[in-house]
Amino acid sequence: MPIKIALAGNPNSGKTTLFNSLTGSSQYVGNWPGVTVEKKEGRLKGFKDVIITDLPGIYSLSPYTLEEVVSRNYILEERPDAIINLVDASNIERNLYLTTQVLELGIPVIVALNMIDLVNRDGDRIDADALSRALGCRMVGISALKEEGTETLAEQAVALARSGERCEKPIVFSPRVEMALKPLADIASWHYPAERVRWYSVKLLERDQKLLEEGKLTGEELAAAEEASAALEREYDDDCESIIANERYNFITELVDSSVIRGRVGMSVSD
Ligand code: GDP
Ligand code: K
Ligand code: MG
Q1: Whole-angstrom distance between the N-terminal and C-terminal Cα of the chain?
Q2: pLDDT tops 50 at residue 177
Q3: In Å, what is the CA distance from 133 to each residue of 126, 127, 130, 192, 250?
Q4: What is the per-residue burial (b if ≥16 Cβ within 10 Å, else e) of 214-234?
Q5: Is residue 109 marked as binding?
């Protein structure tokens, strides 16, 4: 069985540039089953038995766009051995929103901080070790365009895929949200493998339509899940999807504040 590695990231994060650099000419392009979204796969240069899949560009793993559904179905059904989450490091705050979700899928993840050439050009500094510790996953700085760091990334991704080592769950949500997730995790653990319980409990809290349509839960479980969501919404006076999204953003804002130093900050004095 070949090793499968998926590339996931926002549109314009450099996925295709990286994909081309990693696979060279050994690519095949088709469509994802049933939809006209382009599917690109290729063999990793220098490795006989490693297949790279370029997933559609997405901002979130919610079920609203075709690209999101294709990406999450691929990840949940095909179970790649590892995910390379490509992050545009010059837009790190926006890009890490998807990262917090990818880390919940129960699949080994390595984050590639791409466009590091732009970060350096602007004199910004990213403390990749601090980010890596807070997110609980490996992290490599690269420039896909200049093909810098890409070999290291490929080697680390393959090693990660072979080891099957999963990331530690970052502490993203508040204690109150964690309390709401607890009964949902108990329900999810009856229906899904342990490593995927986190993903499904968050999706249950959000009343994710695609998940509810799967029909794995009993009526009683659905009612209990609904009550957990409704109770949280009463307390926050907001809907669960927004509550979860806000907590992801808060987590990322704090993380970026403490791990990214802007070289341009001093410029504002003169403009
Ligand atoms: P995708 O939408 O994720 O497939 O992104 P693309 O690979 O199409 O890249 C989007 C744009 O970013 C293109 O203009 C690339 O040339 C550029 N790009 C990709 N990687 C880098 C990088 O490491 N540094 C810089 N400066 N530009 C990059
Ligand atoms: K761009
Ligand atoms: Mg692309």
Answers
A1: 58
A2: yes
A3: 13, 10, 5, 27, 17
A4: eeebeeebeebbeebbeebbe
A5: no
> Cβ–Cβ contacts within 10 Å for residue 237, how many?
7
Pocket test for ligand 1, best of 10, 12, 13, 86 (most atoms within 8 A of CB): 12
**Is 1 assigned to a binding site?**
no
pLDDT tens digits for 191-226? 999 999 999 999 999 999 888 988 899 999 999 999
**Starting at the edge strand that comes first in sequence, how are the strands of the sheet with 82-88 ordered?**
27-31, 38-43, 50-54, 3-9, 82-88, 109-114, 138-141
- Residue 267 predicted with pLDDT over 50: no
3-state secondary structure of 215: coil
Residue extents of the structural domains in the chain: 3-163, 175-237
Q: Which residues are CB-neighbours of 207 under 8 A, at least 6 positions away? A: 225, 226, 229, 240, 241
Give the DSSP letter of residue 174. Answer: -
Q: Point out the ligand 1 atom lying closest to the alpha carbon of residue 118.
A: 26
For ligand 1, atom 24, the nearest C-alpha belongs to 115
Q: Give all strands (DSSP E) within 89-214, no chain letters.
A: 109-114, 125-126, 138-141
The Cα 108–Cα 99 span in angstroms is: 12
Residue 14 assigned ligand-binding role = yes
Domain 3-163 has CATH 3.20.20.70: no
Contact 119, 89 (CB under 8 A): yes
**Nearest ligand, CA 91:** 2
User: Is it the case that residue 183 has pLDDT exceeding 80?
Assistant: yes
pLDDT tens digit sequence for 8-24: 999 999 999 999 999 98
What ipTM did this prediction achieve? 0.97
